[in-house]
Amino acid sequence: MDTRSKHYQELREQMVDLKKALQGVANLGDDFTGKGADNIKSFYKELAGNVDMFISFIDKQKAFHEGVSGTLDDTSFGGDTFIEEHFLDNAVHMGIKNAKSIVKDQKQALKTIFQDIDDLISLEVFDSQTFAEKIEDAEDERKKTVKELRELDKNLKDEYALSETEQQATMALYAEMINATNDGKSISPMNFDKKAYQNSEIYKAKSDIEKQTSEYLKIKKDQEEAREIAKEQEALANRPWYEKALDYGGNIVNELTGVNDAKRAATGVDPITGEELTAGQRVAAGGMAAAGYIPIVGWAGRIFKGGKAVYKTTQATSAAVRAVDIYKTSQKSFDALKTSQKGLYGLTATNGFSEA
């Protein structure tokens, strides 16, 4: 994924250079006049705008590929995890089924033997309850893993498919430009009909497509922020209570909510009233700053948007409506943030503090 992202970055730089070259022709001004000159300059100006659409496609691809590792880490498939669905569906499934059958047959065989010697000694067959529970747990885990793997695969495919908007739009825009340069006899930038081009359906949809791309990139950025915050929370959760309570400098606490409590703990002065605080009040304030580390104002609506990010491809490119559940597999980050929202450390202001 990193290699692919690097290739897209290199391609993006090339497209930026191409756009500059096209704009150079479009901005010739009075240095380029004569028959068809205005049409040619207008053509290159619009063509530079089409390059922007292709750059948007590249940006989407980069954001997607750079986010895949984080998406995997949000599930149980991160790191160096290797899972083969065929193995789970067949070998593991049959192994569990065979294990049940073997234990059942052994139990029945022992029961028959014990019945034959019952007049000599009374014996009971082994209790298979624990085995039954463990084997059912294994089967449940197998089913759960397969289900989550398929959901992850579908979500990644659906998210990747969002780039089809820019792919189709770029081709459609170029086709309309060709149409707008065709006077019935020849195709040339000198014939470019700017008005006809800008009246095309795909051109009218261009701003909507760009807006969707901007929203997608914003969500990917917010998604990464959520993961970083979750990591910060995990790091803080593993530290001693006094470090959690009193750590102000260099901590994200002072960047988000709980700023005033963090200042109270660090400076010993209430930033609102200017009053000096006692040592106990400073510790309590620090604890509340830590406990109030999350919520980020509006994070749930800003990042998860109810768990779904819905994008609509325009009529000019596709009539389909794509619902992409980007955060459906982000459960670990989500759980960490929810824990924080409740007050990660369980510190109280009224009765001192205690560690949850």
Describe the secondary-structure layout.
Elements: H1 2-26, H2 37-73, H3 85-116, H4 129-160, H5 164-180, H6 194-198, H7 201-237, H8 241-246, H9 259-267, H10 279-291, H11 299-304, E1 309-312, E2 321-324, H12 331-341
Describe it.
This protein has 356 residues and is mainly α. The two termini are 40 Å apart. The chain folds into two domains: 1-199; 214-356, no CATH class. A hairpin with an 8-residue loop joins strand 1 (309-312) and strand 2. It is built from twelve helices and two strands, in the order αααααααααααββα.
Structural class: mainly alpha
The tally of beta strands, per DSSP, is 2
- Output the number of helix runs: 12
> Roughly what percent helix?
55-70%
Cα shape: elongated
Compact description:
By secondary structure, the chain is mostly helical. The protein has twelve helices and two strands, in the order H-H-H-H-H-H-H-H-H-H-H-E-E-H. A hairpin with an 8-residue loop joins strand 1 and strand 2 (321-324).
Tags for this model:
12 helices, 356 residues, 65% helix, disordered C terminus, single chain, two-stranded antiparallel sheet, 2 domains, mainly alpha, elongated
